[in-house]
Write a structure and sequence with these properties.
With about 120 residues, the chain is mostly beta strands. It has no helices and eleven strands.
Amino acid sequence: VQLQASGGGSVQAGGSLRLSCTGSGRTFSSIGMAWFRQAPGKEREFVAGVTWSGSSPTYAGPVKGRFTISRDNAKNTVYLRMNSLKPEDTAVYYCAASPNGLYYSSEERYDDWGQGTLVTVSS
């Protein structure tokens, strides 16, 4: 599946952004989706994941309670709503398509990635 991520930008601490990732090529509604991020000088890390139906979302500890992952299968799009942003959230954010209807926290399980969208949070 081909993925196109968008919605990144610069925001002050405490602000909000919504990232979008639109897929094409494979049946989007049947695949799990996840968001990862990579901060400067750090490894890429799992942020959030959601199953093909939008159920059972999971979040990494640092974003739990602030970020919300959701999807609209009619639009072939998965979203990441980010509230109460902190400077440590600064990173390039990537969406990834699972090989099946589930999602995984390990990036090695994913073959299809979006191009990344940069989020910069200033203090």
